[in-house]
Amino acid sequence: MTLSHQIALIRIDEKENSGHAAMLGYRMCEIVIGWLFTL
Q: Under DSSP, is residue 6 helix (H, G, I), strand (E, B) or coil?
């Protein structure tokens, strides 16, 4: 595996992680909003 291949894989991994973090943040917002409505 060449260096450029490793960099490409790292970039893909970062993209997946940021997407996962955004999804998690969205879920947290949904939970908080839902919790506020139940008060």
A: helix
Torsion of CA 23, 26, 30, 33, to 10 degrees: 160
Q: Give the closest residue to 28 by CA, choosing from 2, 36, 11, 12.
A: 36
* Distance (Å, whole) CA 39 – CA 37: 6
pLDDT in tens, 14-28: 777 777 778 888 899
Q: What distance lies between CA 8 and its chain's CA centroid?
A: 18
Tokens 């908080």 sit on residue? 32
